[in-house]
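Worked problem 6 (solution included).
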Amino acid sequence: MPSLLPLTLFEDFMPSRERVIVISDSQYADHKRAEAQKQIDVLQARANEYTKALATITSTIDGLKIEHGITDPAIRPEE
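Solution. The predicted structure is:
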């Protein structure tokens, strides 16, 4: 059985055979647009979650202010 040692010595010097796909410029532009849309959708979903959380927090703050008779200093009547 022949030894594979000589071939393994040159693996570091030989370029690997990577898979290359050739597509047209318009296909590449479509791909980039689709990837951008995916990213926009994810970011929009996160923004919607943050907006809902902000509404909940603001509502809680307002409820606590009403419950404890606290007003903002800017609109507090002068004593």
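Discussion: Residues 33-66 form one domain.
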